[in-house]
Amino acid sequence: MNTLFHKIINNPYTKSTLLTKKTQPHLLNHFTTAAQPPLPPPHTAPPSSSEEDKTAATITTICKSFPNNLNWKTLNQNLKFINLTDQNVIKKVLIHLKDPPNAKKALSFFHWSSHYTNIMHPTHTYALLIHILVNAKLIKDANALIESVLRRSVACNRSSVELFIQDLVSSYEVTSLGSSFVFDLLIQMCAKLRMIDEAIDVCFYLSEHGFRLSIISYNTLLYVIQKSDKPKLVWRVYEHMIENRTYPNEKSVGIMVTALCKEGKLHTFVDMVDRIDGKRCSPRVIVNACLVFGMIEDGRVEDGLVLLKRMFVKNMILDTVSCSLIVYGKIKLGKLESALEVYEEMLKRGFKANSFVHTSFIRAYCEAGKIESGDELFKDMECVGLQPYDETYTHMIAGCSKFGKLEESLNFCEKMVQNGFVPSCLAFNEVVERVNGFVSVRRADEMLTVLLDKGFVPDVNTYSHLIAGYGREGDVEGVLKLYYEMEYRKLSPGSSVFTWLIVSLYQAGRLEESEKYLRTMKARSLAPLDYTCYTLISRYESQ
Question: The domain containing residue 23 runs over which residues?
Answer without folding.
Answer: 1-29
